[in-house]
Amino acid sequence: MLSPYPADMPLTFIDRLQRRFGWLAVPNVTITLIIGQAVLYMANLPTKLGMRLQGVSLDRVMLDPAKVMEGEVWRLATFMFTPPNIGPLFVIFYFALLHLFGSTLEQQWGTFKYNLFLLVGYIANVAAAFLGAALLGAQVQEIGGSKLVLASITAPNSFLYLSVFLAFARLYPDFIINLFFVLPIRIKWLALLAWISYAYVLVTGNSMDRALIIATILNYLLFFGGEHVREWRQGQRKRTFQSQAKRATAAARHVCAVCGISSVESPRTLFRYCSKCSGQRCYCPDHIRDHEHVIDKEPVV
User: Fold this and answer.
1) Transmembrane stretches, by residue range (predicted)?
2) Are 158 and 231 in the same domain?
3) pLDDT in tens, the chain (301 residues)
4) Where residue 34 sits, what CATH number does that domain have?
5) What is the pTM of this model?
6) Burial profile 109-146: b = 16 or more Cβ within 10 angstroms, e = fewer
7) Co-location of 141 and 185 in the same domain
8) Among 89, 138, 230, 253, which residue carries the largest CB count within 10 Å?
9) Which residues contact 38 (CB under 8 A, 6 or more apart)?
10) Are residues 156 and 185 in the same domain?
């Protein structure tokens, strides 16, 4: 059987993982996630619309590390299907974008790498949720002096799915989205706003939000950090080369010793050097024949 990799191309760590575990890749994961979220959204719709019929409570499926430690382990899986808390019209737009981003990444990377991206993000977000709950619990212990416990606080899945958006924006920065269905904007600017919001929440957010943002950033850097480093190094080499080339090809600058006019100010002027003057003294055509010769006195021995 022929290998899909050229013989002279070095295998990356992800390539080696794919060779060994590629058969475990699950196709169309994005569609599965969207269907699960859509089902829970519709089941919870009566509550959102204020109807008497009670919908399904999302509190039973969201990730709460304290509840997980009490035995509600299903939250480790069901929180992935928690729908966004937005209106019906915008949730359709959200599902459409999530399908676009996820399916495009799967086509660009392949099923295994996309699965790995989601898996690493999932593990990082779950670990960050427990870390954030522990840090908040430590604050409670410090204030009240009670035994350290995990704070009962839910961790959203929005940071995980936002990492899919950031990955798409990295691969297709000039993709245009019609914001609010009207205003066209390149996705790289939306990604920039997302990074700015990350920085803001890192400064002002609680321990849970900070831990989830750090987990998302680490997941992004694991897949794109090497590219950023290579681009930075290439940019440094390019700037160095351009600076050296500019110095090598820069035209000599001539300045008239009398009037001070230079070749930069008057590039068409033919400057001359006087052979009777000491040193390299340059003059413009108006003063090459009409100037006082400057002769340095020889030192007396």
Assistant:
1) 21-43, 85-102, 114-136, 148-168, 175-198, 210-229
2) yes
3) 334 444 445 667 777 887 888 788 889 999 999 999 999 888 887 665 555 445 567 788 888 888 888 888 999 998 999 988 888 888 898 999 999 999 999 999 989 999 999 999 999 999 988 888 888 776 655 554 555 567 778 888 888 899 999 999 999 999 988 876 678 889 999 999 999 999 998 888 888 888 889 998 888 998 888 888 888 888 888 888 877 777 655 655 788 888 888 877 787 888 888 888 877 788 888 888 888 888 776 554 4
4) 1.20.1540.10
5) 0.72
6) bbbbbbbbbbebbbebbbebbbbbbbbbbeeeeeeeee
7) yes
8) 138
9) 83, 95
10) yes
Please give the DSSP secondary-structure letter assigned to residue 79. G
Query: CA angle at residue 159 from 196 to 86, to 5 degrees?
Result: 95
Alpha-helix runs per DSSP H in 153-206: 158-171, 187-204
Contact 155, 135 (CB under 8 A): no
Enter the DSSP assignment of 262: B
User: What's the domain count of the chain?
Assistant: 2
Residue 165: give the domain boundaries.
24-235
